[in-house]
Amino acid sequence: MATRKRPTAARKTSKSPRVVAITGALCTIGRGLCARLAADPSIERVVAIDVRTPEELQPGIHFHRLDLSRPSAEQELADILLVEEADTIVHLAYFGAPVPDAAYAHEVEVIGTLHTLTAATAAQVRRIVVRSTSLIYGAHAKNPSLIREEDRIRGSAASRFVNDKVEAEQQVREFAASHPDTQVTILRFASILGPEVHNVFQRYLTGGLSPTLAGFDPLFQAIHQEDAVEALFAAAKGGRGGVFNVSGRGVIPISTALELVGTLPVPLPYGIAGGALRTLRRVGVGIALPAAMLDYLRYPFVMDASRFERELGFTPRYTTLDAVRSLAPSKSADQQA
Amino acid sequence: MAKKPQVLGNDPFQRGAADRSVRPEAREKDAPRNEEATAEARSKTQPKVEAQVAPPKAGARGKTRSKPETEVKARSKSQAEAKTTPKSQAKAKTTPKSQAKAKTTPKSQAKAKPTPKVDGRSKPQPMAEGRSRPQSKAEAKSKPKTKSKPADMAEPQPEAASSPGPKLEAKALPASEPQAKAPSQTRAEPLATAPPLDHAAPAGQQPRSGPPASGIDAIYASIIALRRMLHLPSAVSGAEVDEFGKDTAFTERVRPLLDWVYDKWFRVEAAGFEQLPRDVPLILVANRAGAVPWDSVMLTLAAQRAGLAVRPLVEDSIFHFPSMGLLVNRLGAIRASPENGERILARGEAVAVFPEGATGFGKPFRERYRLQRFGRGGFIKLALRTGALVVPVSIVGSEEIHPLLARLDLRPFGFPFLPITPTFPWLGVAGLLPFPSKWRIEAEEPFDFRRHGPEAAQDDPLVMRLAEEVRGTIQTMLDNRLAQRSSAFL
Predict the structure, then answer these.
(1) What would the pLDDT profile of A125-148 be if each residue is shown by its tens digit?
(2) Which of B444, B96, B129, B434 is nearest to B294 (CA)?
(3) Which residues share a beta bridge with A327?
(4) Mind listing the pLDDT tens digit for each residue in A268-320?
(5) What is the largest CA-CA distance in chain A?
(6) For residues B304 and B120, what is the distance between their CA atoms, to the nearest angstrom?
(7) Residue B111 is part of which domain span?
(8) Is A300 on the interface with B (CB under 8 A)?
(9) Above 0.85 for ipTM, yes or no?
(10) Which of A178, A201, A279, B369 lies 20 to 30 A from A243 at CA?
């Protein structure tokens, strides 16, 4: 594996970036990364791109509004990148949790990624950092206990949410293979948790009442939002391209995670769980985890994140346990408010 | 073995990750209690530990490396003792009602530091078994006695302290020179299996002379542990597992029950584990039967009693079954895959494999002790790549516990099949109770395939031939044992 990575790293300039553009910059991680990059004196300009407009603009950050799902997004993004002279783009425009409009999600995630990659080529961006997720490995009994980057990506049979991400990442990997002069870094994050993060496992863990599968208690791995920002920062600053698993250290059973957050597990037999969740959704009771993702409560999808730590000199400050604990106070604060 | 340092260094969990995951407040809370208990226990165990450490030092002349580690181990052992001592004392003093409370105390302590113990075991030292054996025996002896006559706490101590000395010598000797003995044993001759058996027979029977814990006591402790795992009310929170899913605290708590099953239910006789070399990675290869993986649990326990840390690699069909996969995973078993095998070997633990795989898992009763096809020889490839020795292990008795009469196809429901035995599912969960057959677990002289080199892992004909050789050896061992026994229950 190392032999495949080394020539790539040698060929690519690991020069520090001057102008960094961030798509999906108004998500929690994006905002954190904007602030982190803006505070770095070696970076001249931070270009934030999002479909939403921010309430307030930080000084030193240029904001552009852009909808990546529009057919013209590619040209617009290329224009922005050229005008701002961006040499690095961090692509974060992905949904953290399934949205009702699956077709729109597909446009944003898969087509949006395609637009971003094409625009990056047109604007001759040197470095592309893309966020991905550990969900794409899929939860499967045949997974190794610690999944490495080169292991098989099984995806999820039923979940469009997961399969969009698999497809989007597939495009990025193909792009990286055909554009050896652009440094492409894919970070496959474990579930990002933190007081301000909103995604599928954050919802699941803070649901108050969450379904579990009777007789199954897979291991769960998470990364704290601050560590996720640090990891993206490290990838944007340089180092090596390639695919990396990124996670906090340690694993905990998902039951322990629920217990730490204070959510009551409702064990359901596997045979009826899917039907029960679908029925509940149909009658309007929202369940944090879609029925299509039930396998993630059955089998583990734990990654070996040591390569990123080793090759980019990254050390997570929070363990999985810390990341899960960070959910507990935010929940109680919400209830009080 | 050549890979060992490389992978070890890359493992994120080896670099103090587990330490950080321990909750600081839990550590602080337990610290004073622990200190007291440790001091108390140390005053009692100190002479004992000294006695145990001294003979190995003499025996391990020329092994300068082992000295500091021995001391560290002795210290951690005395702490481990501290965990069990307050329990038995509390039990002796308190009324039965408050027993539950007293039992939860050592639990929280065990939780506070699960890693040092595992780490200590994961470095297989030639002397490791010499020390751990008497220790467990001392525990085993002190437990039942305190129960029957609480006032006599002091009685088992001197007895335990005096016993390790001479016996340890006897056991330490063959362990330190297994190579010298090895050539004299020939694989094919059934007679050659006799000497190691005779030699180790007292070792296997030792725990039986003093029962480790009463069955009711063990079951009670295990119910608490199980209840906690199944999140039933009044359960204690905060399971800490290693990255493969082993819950050390849970394992410790269920251990009395497993010990009881080992000694009383299956009356396991283990042989040959003391003679295994400790400085090379080992792959134990055994026969497999039954839908409930008692054989992997008992094999682990047998090796553990000989001071060998073993993680069983089990076929992934087990993980489709609710609860069972979870249970064996928390007890240390992991899914069989080359990656997992390499990781475990790199951690310095031995792996136990059951190459019959899913075919052995659903073996009908009439096929008992007839080894099925040995998969695709994955364990041979693992051995060739890592330079590990392959230890043939025969387990006799395991294939009678769940006579599989038929299999009900359950694939539409997400499970491989429902096993039909004379008792299951007719008696419900009680039908899962294994028949109390008499078990004999024997390890024989390991195969050394290192002469073929790691590249041979790609040589499929060679891999299949070696796998067949190992299979033939285990089949011969099984046949010999079966010929010697008169009944499945004696």
Answers:
(1) 999 999 999 999 999 888 889 999
(2) B434
(3) none
(4) 888 788 888 888 877 777 667 888 888 899 888 999 999 999 998 899 999 99
(5) 57
(6) 13
(7) 33-115+125-150+157-165
(8) yes
(9) no
(10) A201
**Are the CB atoms for A82 and A68 separated by under 8 Å?**
no
Residues of B in contact with A255 (CB under 8 A): 231, 239
User: Which of A145, A149, A227, A244 is the best mutation test for B, with the most CBs of B within 10 A?
Assistant: A145
Q: How many distinct structural domains can be found in chain B?
A: 2
Element (H, E) at B28: helix B24-59
More confident residue, B348 or B6: B348
**Under 8 Å between Cβ of B335 and A141:** yes
CB-based contact A213 B322, cutoff 8 Å: yes
pTM summary value: 0.68
CATH code for the domain of B387: 3.40.1130
Question: B213, B237, B214, B235: which is closest to B226 by C-alpha?
Answer: B235
What structural domains does chain A harbor?
2-197+222-247+302-317 (3.40.50.720)
Q: Position of tokens 């027979």?
A: B201
Nearest CB neighbour to A250, from listed B11, B17, B343: B17
Q: Which two tokens stand for residue A67?
A: 């909808």
- Please indicate, yes or no, if residue B253 is contained in any of the structural domains: no
Give SS3 for B56.
helix
Contacts of B246 in chain A (CB under 8 A): none
Q: Tell me whether B320 touches chain A (CB under 8 Å).
A: yes
Estimate the crossing angle of helix B66-93 against helix B128-148, to 10 degrees: 10
What are B409's two structure tokens?
Answer: 């196809």
**Residue B96 falls inside a structural domain:** yes
**Are A251 and B245 inside 8 Å of each other by CB?**
yes
CB nearest B339 (choices: A144, A269, A305): A144
In a domain? residue B23: no
CA B361 to CA B373: how far, in whole Å?
12
B173 membership: H or E segment, kind and range:
helix B164-176
